[in-house]
Amino acid sequence: MLRRADRIVAVSNSMKALLTQHGVTAKKIRVIHNAVDPNETVPNTSGKEIRQRHGLTLDHKVIGVIGRLNPEKGQMIFLRAMEKTAQRFPDVRALIIGDGQDRAMLEGFCREKGLRDHVVFVGYQAKVANYYQVLDLLVLPSLSEGLPNTVLEAMSFGVPVLATAVGGVPEIIQNGNGMMVPPNDPEALAEGMIELLRDDALRQAMGLKGKSSLYPRFAPDYRVRQIVNLYEELLSGRAKAQITSKTAW
Question: How many CB atoms lie within 10 A of CB 205?
Answer without folding.
Answer: 14
